[in-house]
Design a protein that fits this description.
The complex is a heterodimer of chains A (670) and B (319). Chain A has 670 residues and is of the alpha/beta class. Chain A contains 23 helices and 24 strands. Chain A has five domains: 166 residues, Rossmann fold; 73 residues, no CATH class; 69 residues, no CATH class; 212 residues, P-loop containing nucleotide triphosphate hydrolases (Rossmann fold, 3-Layer(aba) Sandwich); 89 residues, no CATH class. Chain A has an eight-stranded mixed β-sheet, sandwiched between helices. In chain A, strands 18-19-20-15-21-22-24-23 form an eight-stranded mixed β-sheet, sandwiched between helices. Chain B is built from 13 helices and no strands. The chains are: A alpha/beta (670), B mainly alpha (319). The complex binds iron/sulfur cluster (SF4) (2 copies). One iron/sulfur cluster binds next to loops of chain A.
């Protein structure tokens, strides 16, 4: 029976292995932690650290080849590992619920949403006549407007944010003792993420559930969890109150992780990001000492010989490090000074100039303006950051520049002053060579059946006309620029890690000496330590070769770090464009302000939180397209008249009716 | 509204496909034989009677005129005169089509449920001996050509064991069960080839659905295994299988030619085969066109069924 005083979750000396090709591969070793009633605990770590395996084990949903070899899991005092099928079902019905990453896949595509929520009540034994009403009430509780209508929808008819609310509604319907959240907002836009996190926080406080929050985003964890455990290679390396751990980490891995993040105020011109050298160990079997020793800048002989225990470092804090006192002084693994800019020539014209380009989909009677009247310039050696929620037109703009879709006829795109053909197939080889792209997902972008050598040398041959010895020299040169060891050349993409694959994709983009590279969320699929290395690489290449970037990203910290100027898009309109620091510090557009509020970690809401979702481009709001969500809306004028994009000071332009001193600024926020 | 538009669009595509087919068939039948009258009357007939016959058959008119009268005839159900039998083609085709549908129907009635069942069972017991047996059996059955398996069956069951008749054609006035008895063995080679395909599709769909996030959601809700499978897994898992089944009608028609000939059965396959050998072009053209109609119709039905079962297709559009 359940014990109301027992901890919500107690994990003790957990050891989990997967059986792969007849061998046990250990993924979790000696993991212990405890979540008290009503407590929020975060488990943070990079991909491959085993954090999702913990969630699977707690819900007893390990795949067939996974096995708990030792240790115990107790949920509300009950031994979860000893349960038979019936007891396990009871546990799942009443005590634990789970929300995971992609809400679009967590719901059954062929069953109406209402029925799926009602099913939870069915299992809980609610009579058939009440289930649908209870389901609707639950949907209202997760702040779904028009819940009655949503009930009769299929999942594909709802947006990601809405779906995640439905999943949360199902998870909280039975008032579980323990709520497990596995990267619940990773697939969502920053503004939607902020809303969903708010919602989880409020409901949790109301219901008093305990939370196990699993994630890689340190900012999100620090906002949601009172305590945090840092997981590295299946081992808990540090634990303590979240605020203390992140403010003064005492394990070199935590220190390294935090240093990888582009902090506010950092920029590629001032300092390179620190990275964590090396890779996650491929097998835990042979490690006798500290799991982090291979990558640790403080490692001594004792570290390789003797595994450190979890050492209490202060009240409620533990660190698994022999030298936890020195951890804050971990030496940098990369030199801090950015490369000297070798290509500091005075440019007299932009590399790329787009004037009045737009993109209209749909029929002439029902046009959908994906992008409307955009004019931008990108100068040699500079990075233009492009931000906005999904649906704002970021990707469409990138596609137009690349010629992947043709813009509406009246726009002009120029490369080095020469007018470009609207589609890539009509462009000259030299133009194609000059305009390259790096995608978010290197897997989709790299041909899986080809070797790295083939992938990289193909554009050299096709676009640059290199052959034989010249090709080999050029290849070697490029590999050293990209800092990719030549031993990878004969391998195929699947043999490489995500970060290395992205390096290959970058190498391919740089194979033909490009003038501008469109980077479409190039690091959003990567771990922070890998992201830091890729950002450094991009900055170094820019300093060395004077290349320009159009950098599309939803991560404002990354954009701020890498960009010289920033353009903000909303519903296909350019809302603001200007120097990065000016855009960030303000006075800035109310939309920019809201985006920043959503991404700010510590802020728990406030009036600036964006409400609702981006309207459909099919029916854009009248007047200022942002007026339906604008926290600073003036009144009727915003609904009736579209403001012009007006130069405020220098080359900082904002599309808003507000005067300069009425606009928000970063330092004015609490 | 979208649904009706989609249906209309598919119907249009079907009509265009059939029209193209008719052109190709017609062209093929015109170009290949050279002189139809000569082909019918043989090399020793005198030129005047050949010309007279050509005139009687209408093959001396301009091609476009011929095509027009042929295709309008077709549309009115008038399929022309058979060269071989000197009689209207339509009754032959109708009779043969009915026979073929019986044979194909039995094969389908057997293979669809069993194939799906095999796939589902294999997926539920994935990587066990049950799974391997089903997969390997399906795979090996698929690679045996139907004339090989057909001949083996005839030798074993008809000649050696004498359990089944040699021919597939039941005696006239045979009852329902007798007909099935006669058709059972000929349908087995077809069954063997299709079973592997269907089972493989069903298995893949099941495995995908079983490892999906929504199945995990269902399990973690606390549903029983049975409820999870019936409510959440099966429907999503079997959707793609439906399309495969429909596209297999194309294969089935090819298989029918072989099986019908082998088992001496008067179906559309053997009819076309005979017509091609005898250079009976009206019969050949009509037969091929009818098969085209059946094929296009089956695909149309599959499309509609798929969209009826899949909410993502029938309504479309996001909120
Ligand atoms: S124990 Fe040694 S190797 Fe491990 S983290 Fe501490 S200093 Fe580094
Ligand atoms: S014009 Fe009005 S609605 Fe639009 S951003 Fe400015 S204040 Fe907000």
């Amino acid at each position: 029976m359940q014990d109301a005083t027992a901890a919500a979750l107690e994990v003790r000396d957990l050891d989990i292995a997967y059986r792969v090709r007849g061998r046990d591969r250990q993924v979790i070793r000696g993991l212990s932690f405890r979540i008290g009633r009503g407590e929020t605990f975060g488990l943070v770590g990079e991909s491959g650290c085993g954090k999702s395996t913990v969630a699977l084990a707690v819900t007893r949903y390990l795949p067939n080849n996974g096995r708990v070899r030792a240790g115990g899991i107790r949920i509300a005092g009950e031994d979860a590992l000893a349960m038979d099928a019936a007891a396990l079902r009871r546990l799942r019905t009443r005590s634990i619920s789970m929300v995971y990453q992609d809400p679009g896949r967590a719901l059954n595509p062929s069953i109406r949403v209402g029925q799926q929520v009602a099913e939870v009540f069915e299992i809980a034994g609610v009579p058939a006549s009440e289930r649908m009403d209870r389901a609707e009430a639950m949907l209202e509780r997760v702040r779904i407007v028009d819940a009655g209508r949503v009930m009769s929808r299929y999942p594909h008819q709802l947006s990601g944010g809405m779906l995640q609310r439905v999943v949360i509604a199902m998870a909280l319907a039975v008032d579980p003792t323990l709520l497990i959240l596995d990267e619940p907002t990773t697939a969502l836009d920053a503004t939607v993420e902020a809303e969903v996190l708010d919602l989880i926080e409020t409901l949790r406080a109301e219901m008093g559930s305990s939370v196990l929050f699993i994630g890689h985003n340190l900012a999100v964890i620090s906002r949601m969890c009172a305590r945090v455990g840092v997981l590295y290679a299946g081992t808990l390396v540090e634990e303590g109150p979240t605020r203390d751990v992140f403010a003064g980490p005492r394990h070199p891995y935590t220190v390294g992780l935090l240093r990888c993040l582009p902090q506010a105020g950092l920029s590629k011109h001032k300092t390179r990001l620190d990275t964590i050298p090396g890779f996650l160990p491929t097998s835990l079997a042979g490690i006798r000492g500290c799991v982090f020793a291979e990558r640790c800048g403080l490692a001594q002989d004792i570290c390789r010989a003797e595994e450190p225990p979890l050492i209490p470092v202060s009240e409620g804090r533990l660190s698994r490090c022999h030298f936890h006192e020195q951890a804050p002084d971990l030496p940098r693994s990369t030199p801090p000074a950015p490369l000297a800019n070798r290509q500091k020539t005075q440019a007299f014209r932009p590399v790329v100039r787009a004037a009045g380009i737009g993109k209209t989909f749909g029929s002439p009677t029902a046009p959908i303006y994906a992008l409307r009247d955009i004019s931008i310039e990108i100068w040699p050696g500079e990075t233009l950051g492009l931000v906005g929620e999904s649906g704002s037109g970021k990707t469409t703009l990138a596609k137009l520049l690349l010629g992947l879709t043709a813009p509406d006829p009246d726009g002009v795109i120029e490369l080095n002053g020469q007018k470009l053909a609207p589609v890539a197939t009509k462009r000259q080889p030299a133009e194609l060579e000059a305009l390259q792209i790096v995608f978010q997902n290197p897997d989709a972008a790299l041909n899986r059946s080809q070797t790295i050598r083939r992938i990289i040398s193909r554009p050299m041959r096709k676009l640059g006309g290199y052959r034989g010895g010249k090709l080999a020299t050029k290849l070697t040169e490029l590999m050293s620029h990209i800092r990719l060891a030549e031993r990878y050349l004969p391998m195929r993409p699947r043999q490489l890690s995500g970060g290395l694959k992205q390096r290959v994709a970058i190498a391919r983009a740089f194979a033909g000496d490009p003038r501008i590279v469109v980077c479409d969320e190039p690091t959003s699929a990567l771990d922070v330590s890998v992201q830091a290395a890729i950002l450094n690489l991009l900055a170094d290449l820019q300093a060395e070769q004077g290349v320009s970037y159009l950098f599309v990203s939803h991560d404002l910290r990354v954009v701020r770090y890498i960009s010289d100027r920033i353009a903000v898009l909303y519903l296909g309109r350019l809302m603001e464009i200007g120097p990065a620091e000016a855009v960030f510090l303000g006075p800035h557009h109310p939309y920019t302000e809201s985006l920043m509020a959503a991404s700010a970690s510590e802020e728990a809401g406030g009036s600036l939180r964006l409400k609702g979702e981006i309207p459909s481009a099919m029916r854009p709001p009248s007047g200022c397209v942002f007026h339906t969500r604008c926290p600073r809306k003036i009144g009727a004028i915003c609904e009736e008249q579209e403001p012009a994009l007006i130069q405020r000071e220098g080359d900082h332009a904002i599309r808003c009716h507000l005067e300069r001193d009425q606009l928000g600024r970063a330092d004015a926020r609490p | 509204m979208r649904l009706y538009r989609a249906i209309l669009y598919r119907l249009m595509l079907a009509v265009i496909t059939l029209w193209l087919l008719s052109v190709i068939v017609f062209a093929g039948c015109q170009i290949l034989p050279g002189d139809v009258g000569r082909a019918i009357l043989g090399p020793f007939a005198d030129a005047r009677s050949v010309a007279a016959l050509n005139h009687q058959l209408g093959v001396d008119r301009p091609l476009l005129v011929q095509y027009w009268s042929w295709i309008t005839g077709m549309l009115h159900g008038n399929m022309g005169q058979s060269y071989t039998y000197r009689a209207p083609v339509a009754p032959f085709i109708g009779h043969a089509l009915l026979n073929s549908l019986k044979l194909a129907g039995i094969a389908f009635v057997l293979v669809v449920p069993l194939g799906i069942l095999g796939g589902v069972v294999a997926a539920l017991r994935v990587n066990t001996w049950v799974d391997r047996t089903i997969v390997i059996a399906g795979l090996s059955a698929t690679v045996v050509p139907e004339f090989v398996s057909g001949i083996v069956f005839i030798m074993v069951f008809s000649i050696w064991l004498r359990i089944f008749p040699l021919t597939a054609t039941p005696p006239s006035h045979a009852g329902f069960f007798t007909t099935i008895y006669y058709l059972l063995m000929p349908s087995i080679p077809l069954f063997m080839i299709l079973f592997g395909y269907i089972a493989r599709m069903a298995r893949a769909g099941m495995i995908e659905a079983l490892t999906s996030d929504y199945t995990r959601t269902a399990v973690l809700k606390g549903l029983t295994y049975r409820q999870v499978i019936w409510r959440h897994v099966l429907r999503n898992a079997l959707l793609p299988t439906i399309t495969v089944i429909a596209t297999q009608t194309g294969y089935l028609i090819g298989g029918l030619v072989v099986v019908e000939t082998l088992f001496n059965y008067h179906g559309i396959g053997s009819l076309i085969f005979a017509a091609a050998k005898a250079k009976d072009f009206p019969m050949l053209a009509a037969g091929i066109l009818v098969i085209g109609v059946v094929y296009v119709g089956a695909n149309l039905i599959a499309d509609l069924l798929y969209s009826a079962l899949n909410p993502r297709i029938s309504f479309g559009g996001r909120e």
